[in-house]
Design goal:
Number of helices of chain C: 7
Largest sheet of chain A: 5 strands, mixed
Shape of chain A: elongated
Distance between the termini of chain C: 31 Å
Strand order of the largest sheet of chain A: 5-4-3-6-7
Mean pLDDT of chain C: 76
Strand content of chain A: 15-25%
Shape of chain C: elongated
Low-confidence stretches of chain A: 30-34
Oligomer: heterotrimer
Number of domains of chain C: 3
Distance between the termini of chain A: 68 Å
Chains: A alpha/beta (181), B alpha+beta (660), C mainly alpha (166)
Order of helices and strands of chain C: HHHHHHH
Order of helices and strands of chain A: HEEEHEHEHEEH
Radius of gyration of chain C: 29 Å
Structural class of chain A: alpha/beta
Helix content of chain C: 55-70%
Largest interface: B-C, 89 and 65 residues
Mean pLDDT of chain A: 83
Strand content of chain C: under 5%
CATH class of the largest domain in chain C: Mainly Alpha
CATH superfamily of the largest domain in chain C: Cytochrome C biogenesis protein
Low-confidence stretches of chain C: 155-166
Helix content of chain A: 40-55%
Radius of gyration of chain A: 22 Å
Number of strands of chain C: 0
Number of helices of chain A: 5
CATH architecture of the largest domain in chain C: Orthogonal Bundle
Largest sheet of chain C: none
Structural class of chain C: mainly alpha
Amino acid sequence: MARARTRVVAAVVGAVSIALIVVFALRTSAGTGTTTTPLGGSVAKAISGVNLANGLPISLHEMRGRYVVVDFFASWCGTCLSEEPQIEAFTFAHRNDRTVGFIGVDIDDSINNARGFLTRYGATWPAVVDATGSIAQAYGVAQPPELFLIDPVGKIVSSISQPVTATELTNWIREAKVARA
Amino acid sequence: MNSWIGHLGIWIGLSGSVATIAMCLLTLWPGSVNLVSRLWVAAFVPLLGALVATFAMEHALVTHDFSLAYVASNNSRETPLLYSITGMWSALQGSILLWVLVLTGYLCAMAIRFRARCEDRLFVIALGIVGLVALFFFYLISGPADPFAEVSRAVADGTGPNPLLQDNLLIAFHPVFLYLGYVGFTVPFAFALASLITGRIGEGWLIATRRAAVFAWACLTVGIVLGAWWSYQSLGWGGAWGWDPVENVALLPWLTATAYLHSVMVQERRGLLRIWNLSLLVATFSLTILGTFLTRSGVVVSVHAFSNSDIGPTLLSFFAVIVLASVGLIGWRGDRLVSSGSIDAPISREGAFLANNLIFACFAFVVLLGTVAPVIVEAVSGGAISIGRPYFDTFTVPLGIALLFIMAIAPALPWRKAGAGVMRARILIPAWSAVGLLAILVLVGVRGFVPLLTFSLGGFAATSALRQLALATLGAHRHGLPPWRGLVGRANGGMVTHLGVICVAVALCASTSYATRTLITLKPGASTVVAGRELTFVGWQTVNAPAAKGYLAKVRIGGDGIFRPGIVNYDNSPSSTALPSIDSTATQDLYLELASGAGLGLPVSIEVISEPLVMWLWIGGAICALGALLALVPGSRRRPTDPSTVTLPEFLGASPVGGR
Amino acid sequence: MSDALALGTLLRSRSMWAALVVVFVVLLAIGSAHTSVTTRAQRIANLENVLKCPSCADASLAQSETVAANELKSTIRDWVGQGLSDQSIEARMVATYGQGELLRPTESVLWIVPAVAVSAAVAGLLLFFARRRPPERGVSKEGEARVLELLGRRADSRRREVDDDG
């Protein structure tokens, strides 16, 4: 009786441990996943400000009719630094594309740092500074970089919160167009 | 050069561990000579290797040898000597080197301590198991987490340690104590497995490893309390415990180890709960490995965790091997350990220990579940969830209160069975004193269900512990012994530890229940009153250290002097680091933190958190450690009780170890 | 020792225990009354403990002093000031940041499992002792009385007290 009980308990504990180990093993091999925003499908909140690249006013609203990539970044964010060339390549490739727009939002940062970040890498893409943090809050941005895709009617499609390449951004928009068509 | 010496040390350690294991295996081989009795000194070789590697690492850090990748990313030319030395455990690879150093130290101590028992298969197997664990950790630093990897391209200056790791002296102590605790449980764990492998049912190994378990427990306790103190001073939110995964995984082995230290007494006295005790040791050791895996592999995120690394799969495999081997052994051999006796009555010392163990097990289960549930839920449903204070408090507060209650009752209960007379004589007076305390607290205006319950049960438990200590001291006096004899030994040391735990419980409850936050804004020279204390803003002070720039606000608090909360930018960190300042007194802490930007001539905006009795958290921790030290001194009275099942030679073999 | 005396002792001790429990509960009830009213500051503190700081690795808003966390805290203060209920504030935060924003998981299984485990532990303990009674190796009443008589009750109880803290 006691003997059997010991074995049963040991078997149960062993089984639970194996299950736990399998879950952890899957988790470690999976790497960091893409988080999709709970805001998908809702109307994107307004973004407007002075374009750091040229000093002219700019807003998300005036890009209605295009697929707009909104890139939340910061000068102190390492991933943002490393993916800047990809962003530059993406915006350069679509500079004459009337269906695609781009706007960068600098968060938790100072204007001077943001300007330094853009000039240091020769960035030409439009960016505004979210001085009060209200834009980041409205979009539920936890950590830069986080990119949102807004559709032509101004609704949020999805978001990516891991490093991206120019090709991935282009594919992202293509998939959204296909899904909408 | 340093890299070369370091790798040499690791190779000495690896071969030493292999030699130790081989020596043990050959000894166990039927018909072979006992190598351990002749060559037990071989167990020193891993320690030698670890010392060489540690020397190489410290030398590299102190001389700023940036050819090592580890030094380049955790040290800079401006890093002060002390923080260069502590740099060894400022990041993953070096901290595993510290783990190895501590582990080989224990291995060596074990070889010295038990060299007279080399004929004992139990000891030979246990030594081999510790050798295996040492081999695994040497393997970790030889490849997957190599602290001596060289940089591919030379750098002129390193990046320096994380800002949070270079402004507090506790970094020199907290990790060391924590690792002494974590790693120390390897020794009782090895003996537990050895007793399963040999199928020896005696209580000898328990007594033999009792000191090691108490010592490791004391170090773990000190490590956890120092860690909480450090968080309190550095993290800036005014609390000591945040139910963060890294904190939880340090608490988990502490919970199971505490349960073990109690239930092991039932086994020593009555020969009961053997499988349970083995399981607790296995759980304690497995949980330290699981915790290391969880926090070092990036599976869970935490403010305290080191950056992601590649050792996750290796640690997870090791954890799997430990758990499956132990569970398999218990399933295979466990039946031999089932004792014939049984616990007779619920109202008895062993009944109380049983209840205590169930509560600790539930506590550990809740903490483990809350820590790993986000990972499990994400794996099952794909959604991200977070678990924090509201969840943990819901379960752990009632469990903690139940533990306080048991702590009040148990020391007064006799073994086997307590009659009504005994209960009245020993418990009624402490119980009424608890009621008296409650009445006083209610009269002076203390309010709140949980705090009042905690304080009164704390008073109950404290009276109970003090009563035991007083009786023991009187008893010692009556036997013509010096009165301090009544404070040493496991039982009395345990009572001192209880007093420490009560301090911590009361302080934790008071400081979280009655904390108030006030935001004040003061022009230079202006003052205001917060929580009964006058705060005056004296002026700004600039920080202009080699590696840090910033401002401190000089604030005078009553007659306690000047306090300097500030904000500092370290050269190697993009964001600024807030430096809280704390006016700590026995009754109340005022925790000051800058709430907005700083600059000469500007008014200062400070968040003032007033929390009662915080200091007693640290005092309580110190009392716990003191109690454990007193418990290590051999007691004045009883020799270890021999259970009915022990064989005579074994008992004789054990008796020189476990006291008089 | 006569039976009547033993009974008297028992009754006296029973009433002492009963009185103890009653006084304790009454005092506790007095002490915990009037604490159920939550002030606005308490509500804010609770919300800051329940909501995660979105930009932090693992910390509640209360534990975080980052710029983003401080902005969220002021937003929450505003919402409480506007008269929003705790539920609607939590719902707003979850709608923006996702389910991970709540530090109190909504998965009922995470609440049920520990509750069941604790109840099972308690039930198991009670069952265990219920089955043990009466003790198999007990001493008969006469035997016990005889032993007590021989040893002398006072001496015995004193010695046991000094001895049994092992």
